[in-house]
Amino acid sequence: MDILKPELIWVDGRCYRVLENIERTDARDVPPYFEDNNYHLDDKDCEDEYYDTDIEIVPYGSTKFKHTFRVPKAFFSYIIGAKHAVRKRLESETGTLIQIPKLGQDGDIVIIGSDRKGIITARRRINLLMEATRKKLEFTHFLSIPLNEGHIIMKFNMFKNEVLTNSGKKSRGVDETIFQTPSKLHLTIGLMTLLDETERSKAIEALYYCNEHIVRPTIEKYGQIPIHLQGIDIMQDDPSEAKIIYAKLVNKTEVLQKIVDEIVDYYVKIGLIIKSKRQSNKLHLTLMNTKFQINEEERNSKNFITFDAREILKAHENTTFGETILKQIHISQRHTIGSNGYYLATAKINLLEGL
C-alpha cells in the first residue's frame, strides 16, 4: 500500500483511511484474540460524531446512558483484542464501558456511558474496526449471474480443448486444473462476507429490493437484457505472467452494466459490499484462473502462480462463447456445489417469471 495514498473505506456515510495492508483470512478460522491498530479517525470525525442521531441511546440508571447493538460473533475477538487491549483502549478514549459476549457466544454489544457523545464515539469506532476487519475475512458469498447453459458450456469446452491441445499446449503453467468448472460458469456482480443469519437475511432482502426497484423496471423499459460473450482478455498487463483469462461481454447498450452498477451501489449503501479499489464492477466470464488449482491457504496469498497466455490470446482474440439473456441473479455460496453443479444459492430471482 502507498502510505501517501491509503485505501479508503466508507462507514455510515463517512470516509476513513486504512493505514495498514490487510490480508484476508477465513471467517471460520478467527483467532481467539487479536489486536489491530489498522483504523484511524480524523480529528474532525471525532468532533462531529456526537451530532449523529441514528443510533438508539436510552437512560441507564439515574445518571448514565446505554446503547445496545448486534454484532456477528466473528468480530468479537477483534474488538476485544489481545489481553482485552483494544476494548480497554476504546473504553479509555471514549469514557465508556463496553460489554461484549464471551468468546464463541452470540449476543449484543452494550455500551454504557455518562454522556451520549462518548457512546456515539465508541459505536463509530467499533463500526470502523468491524469494516476494516471484514476486509480481512474470506468472502463467503457473491452475487452472480449463472451462465451454465448448454450452448455456452459447449463453447467453453471447445475453447478448453483447443488450448490444451494447441495454442496453450507448450505454454508455461497451462494445464487442465486452471480451467473453470463448466457447470459453474457465471458473471460476478459483487463479493460479500456474510457472517451470520442476520446478515444473510439482509442480503436476501436486498436482492428482492433490487429486483423490484432496479432490475424489473429496467427490463420493462428496455426489454430483455442481452448477454453476448466474445473475445478474451487478461486481468494483468503482462500476458506472459497471467493469472486469469476471461471472456469479454460485448455490450451494445450498456444496460446490463448499468443494472450491475446500481445493484452494487445499493449493497455498498447497506454495508454488505465493501467498496475497494481492488474490486471492479466490470462484468466478465472467468475461463481460467490459477487460484482454481491451489488450496485455501495459498488462495489468500498474493504470490500465487502465473501462466503464459500470449499464444492463447492470439488464438482466441475473437472467439465467440455464446449469447443469452439475463435470466437469473443469485446470492451464491462460495466453494459449494449444488445438485445441478452450480453454486448453492442462498437466494435467487428468476427474471423470466411473470413475463
TrEMBL record:
Coiled coil: none
Record carries keyword Chloroplast: no
Residues annotated as domain K Homology: 63-131
Keyword set, alphabetical order: RNA-binding
CDD domains: KH-I_ASCC1 (cd22419)
RNA-binding listed as a keyword: yes
Molecular-function GO terms, alphabetical: RNA binding
Domain of life: Eukaryota
Classification via Gene3D superfamilies: Cyclic phosphodiesterase (3.90.1140.10), K Homology domain, type 1 (3.30.1370.10)
TM helices/strands, residue ranges: none
GO cellular component, one term: nucleus
InterPro entries: AKAP7-like_phosphoesterase, ASCC1, Cyclic_Pdiesterase, KH-I_ASCC1, KH_dom, KH_dom_type_1, KH_dom_type_1_sf
BP term (GO), one: regulation of DNA-templated transcription
Name this protein carries in UniProt: Activating signal cointegrator 1 complex subunit 1 isoform X2
Gene giving rise to this polypeptide: LOC117236594
